[in-house]
Specification:
29% helix, alpha/beta, 14 helices, 18 strands, 21% strand, six-stranded mixed β-sheet, five-stranded parallel β-sheet
Length: 396
């Protein structure tokens, strides 16, 4: 059995950032498992643009030397806003080559307790023992499919994250379910490749993130109203950008303001691309049933639609029991609320030595953890927490 101080499961923005910080601290033996940026590269559609601003799209290293601008200088690839998906994934791989060059691409099959530490079993059967394990495995396991569509075959209904290339929908009639950035951008991309598209949304209207000239571009006002990650409305943005403060609020306030900060909305630059698309708001799908090679949708306004495919841009619902590498025995020891692990100030769960980063940390630290921008806070905090525990146990 091979051993290390800290094993990190996942090689996306959070896993890579945490590794960069931990490797710079105290000579710890860090091992990262996973393929770099695989979710972004395989489960986001080609042609996508990131909604987050450039200031909220950096991965994090302790010296802030591996930024988007550093990548641009090293690669010669121009950084533009909004940031194209392919440029972001290339930046992530460049970050990995600089910060975690010895990454292990193998998948982790199982994580379980082993004495005073934790044991990982890999897909090829090899086992590792680590004093600490950081789960930074992303959101793919949490893709939400509403119950109305669960009896449809994949050929008729699928989650948006199942498609890297939307070109096979060319000439098809597609209903997109949702009212957020994923739904609206998927609809725009489908329309642009020649599909007939309609967006169906329960929400009474579509929110667009218009950037008011004085609020966002006049520096003194912009700094006062919005934190650099730009998550949440004016004023609330600063609270969301301070997770240590956000977590001290009463739980009822956290729940209310957390939902408000991440309400479904589309970037302003996407609005003109959606102008030719039929967007039907205030409309729910009551039932969905196969009719030959098509789908019949019955809607809440008593109308029907017959489409070739239903694309579910219905988001993600965190439930760590859906991580395939966490089995019953260890799950029983993780205190959870609505699927989220309850974490301490060092992102440690109720299982000693087991930490969670990214979206699963949102219940404990607020909505910033759902965005790349949260990687810096999380990486610094988990590093401090791990070093504090190690030092308190007598290790220098």
């Amino acid at each position: 059995m091979t051993t290390c101080d800290v094993a990190i499961v996942g090689a996306g923005p959070y896993g890579l950032s945490a590794a960069a910080h931990l490797r710079a601290a105290n000579g710890l033996d860090i091992h990262v498992f996973g393929e770099p940026m695989s979710f972004w590269e395989r489960h986001m559609p080609k042609g996508m643009l990131l909604r987050s601003p450039l200031a909220g799209s950096h991965l994090s290293d302790p010296f802030r030397s591996l930024t988007l601008q550093a990548y641009q200088a090293a690669s010669g690839n121009q950084i533009t806003a909004p940031l194209p998906l392919h440029r972001f994934t290339d930046y992530g791989r460049w970050f990995q080559s600089q910060a975690v060059p010895d990454l292990d691409p193998r998948k982790v099959d199982r994580v379980e307790k082993n004495g005073a530490g934790l044991q990982l079993t890999l897909e090829d059967g090899e086992t590792w023992k680590a004093r600490r394990v950081i789960i930074a495995a992303g959101i793919m396991s949490f893709a939400w499919q509403p119950p109305e569509f669960r009896n449809l075959p994949f050929s008729l209904a699928s989650h948006a994250c199942a498609h890297r290339d939307l070109s096979h929908f060319r000439g098809k009639r597609v209903a997109v379910i949702g009212a957020g950035q994923s739904a609206l951008e998927s609809a725009a991309l489908l329309h642009e490749i020649g599909a007939e598209v309609e967006v169906l949304a329960r929400a009474p209207f579509v929110r667009w993130l218009w950037r008011q000239k004085w609020f966002h571009t006049f520096p003194p006002v912009a700094r006062l109203l919005y934190a650099p990650p730009d998550v949440g409305q004016a004023g609330l943005s600063h609270l969301v950008a301070r997770p240590n403060l956000f977590r001290r609020l009463p739980r009822s306030v956290q729940n209310r303001w957390g939902k408000r900060a991440i309400r479904p909305a589309g970037a302003a630059w996407l609005n003109p691309r959606c102008a030719p698309i039929r967007i039907n708001t205030g409309t729910a799908v009551i039932s969905a049933s196969p009719k030959g090679e098509r789908v019949m949708l019955k809607l809440s306004d008593a109308s029907e639609r017959h489409v070739d495919h239903v694309l579910l841009a219905t988001g993600y619902r965190v439930d760590v029991s859906r991580y395939p590498f966490l089995r019953d025995r260890i799950l029983e020891s993780i205190r959870r609320t609505d699927g989220y692990p309850q974490l301490d100030s060092g992102f440690q769960s109720s299982v000693p030595g087991l930490h969670f980063l990214g979206a699963p940390a949102a219940w404990s630290f607020g909505p910033l953890m759902r965005f790349v921008a949260g990687a810096e806070f999380a990486s610094r905090r988990v590093t401090r927490g791990i070093l504090g525990k190690i030092n308190s146990n007598g290790r220098s």
